[in-house]
Design brief:
The chain is mainly beta. The chain is built from five helices and 19 strands. Strands 2, 3, 4, 5, 6, 7, 8, 9 and 11 form a nine-stranded antiparallel sheet that branches. The chain has an eight-stranded antiparallel β-barrel with strand order 12-13-14-15-16-17-18-19.
């Protein structure tokens, strides 16, 4: 598969917001005539403060969300002719250029990662594996209210044009800096959580859940807030990601673990400032 080279600047990226989200194409069309955004372009297009609208090609549902600087979002979805529903979630742009979402819809969790592509002046969220998804249909994505690119290190502020204050003493700066995260490696994840039952709370909606992670590769899950249950299989990646593949309606996902004060916490990426997705309350 070959992609056309592109040199989209901020001005060109902004033009994508001018199109209505009603265009649907196949993975083959994107592969033949489209071009993937690079990391910098994705972070500019889908920045903190962005208001995103996406039409799911399979259902016709119009999905909208606004991306907060802290990595959270509030999403709404309206089925054709139906009433809107809302849910909370998280967003991030990973270092490999993928745009990843987690949304806790009622009755199901969504956890997806996309590549952003340009095609004939429009933008699309699509699979990074287009050759394996040539016949799959993808909907256009429209972005407005663009904010500060992720990773820029500076958030928008009314005082942005004011003179910078004098630098604080080195001791005060060091004291105020938060402790750097250290994500567990594969061996430590296995030692701490395999053959244990983990009780955690999802930060997007407050729901409590339980994972019984067995040494034979099985995991038995329970949503303690809704009384839902599921079974699946777990794997541990080389970078320490604990990945769950469920057999029921639970959304598959990979999670990174670090120590946050007196408890463990989990994120959906290994970025140093990734929002916490699960807080672990108990390991037994």
């Amino acid at each position: 598969m070959k992609y056309r080279q592109t040199s989209l600047g901020v001005a060109v990226l902004a033009c994508f917001s001018a199109y209505a989200a009603d265009r649907i194409v196949t993975g083959q069309e994107i592969a033949d005539r489209g071009a993937p955004f690079d990391l910098a372009q994705t972070r500019t297009f889908l920045a903190a403060g962005a208001e995103v609208e996406h039409t799911a090609p399979g259902t016709g549902n119009v999905r909208r969300w606004k991306q907060s600087p802290d990595g959270t979002l509030i999403a709404s979805s309206r089925a054709a002719g139906g009433k809107p529903v809302t849910a909370s979630g998280t967003w991030t742009v990973r270092d490999d250029g993928r745009y990843c979402l987690t949304i806790a819809w009622t009755g199901r969790d969504e956890s997806s990662c996309y590549r952003v592509y340009s095609l004939e002046g429009n933008a699309y969220l699509a699979s990074s594996q287009l050759q394996q998804n040539a016949d799959r249909r993808y909907g256009q994505v429209v972005v407005s209210g663009l904010g500060v690119p992720v990773g820029a290190g500076v958030m928008s502020s009314p005082k942005a044009t004011e003179p910078e204050p004098s630098a604080a003493p080195a001791e005060a700066t060091a004291a105020a800096a938060p402790a750097a995260r250290t994500y567990l490696g594969a061996d430590d994840v296995r030692k701490e959580f395999v053959d244990h039952v983990v009780v955690h709370q999802r930060q997007t909606d407050g729901n409590k859940g339980q994972w019984d992670v067995r040494g034979n590769g099985m995991v038995y899950g329970a949503n303690l807030s809704t009384n839902g249950k599921d079974t699946g299989n777990w794997t541990i990646e080389a970078d320490g990601a604990l990945c769950m593949k469920w057999r029921g309606n639970t959304v598959n996902g990979c999670y990174y673990t670090f120590r946050d004060g007196d408890h463990w916490a989990r994120t959906t990426s290994a970025a140093p400032d990734a929002p916490v997705y699960y807080v672990i309350n108990e390991v037994r």
